[in-house]
Fold PABS domain-containing protein.
Amino acid sequence: MATSKTPVLPEVNFSDWGDIRYLHLGTEWVQGSMKLDAPFEIELEYVQRMMAWLLFADPKSVASRHAMQLGLGAATLTKFCRKTLRMRTTAVELNPQVVSACRGWFKLPADDPKLRVVIADAAQEIRKPEWQGTVDALQVDLYDHEAAAPVLDSEDFYADCRALLTEDGCMTVNLFGRSSSYERSLEKIAGAFGADAVWAFKPTREGNTVVLAQRAPSRPKREALAERAQTIQTRWALPAPKWLRVFKPLNPTLTRPSGP
């Protein structure tokens, strides 16, 4: 008789380099980072870009919104959303050792009325009715210890992600890996959300490409985005004006952001 096996979860460890602490899952691949003297800031460029949904949200409404992270990493996004943006924040993480590491080494606060960390398989957790239509900012960063391709990356999974979002909600996804893997992921996201709902950054130097998908497509004018980006930089110290040079709506071929 076949029996289901409990997945073998990787060892969790950290390293310090100068004033930066890095999270690892038993390999040299970085799963997240923290400035030791500024633990609630976002240090990595691609993680800053995961906050691009702020371009589509009224700044006055942010503190009343709900953010959800799939994959805790070093808790950078979770801490920023809860502590800096003062949002209701939920994180879903499969590995309880990662949660313990974040609480012990990366300054993740204990759960409170506006912060909840759920230890669960994200694919199963997000199908629960309690989450449907409740998430304004969904941030997806699901990689295993080998960091080769997203762990969850099917069109069905992205459709489940879309079902989580409020009417004006957005999903941001970190895609890291070979270009062929990126293209396949992009097509699946466009299949679930519609190509007109998808925006993408150019890759960072490290090879991370952040993709944004809207529950309801919109095309704000460039001037409005520039004004919003300046507000984001002033209020929350994120380099949003720089984002606009490398952040475009998807073009019809689904293969790259449009524009120069």
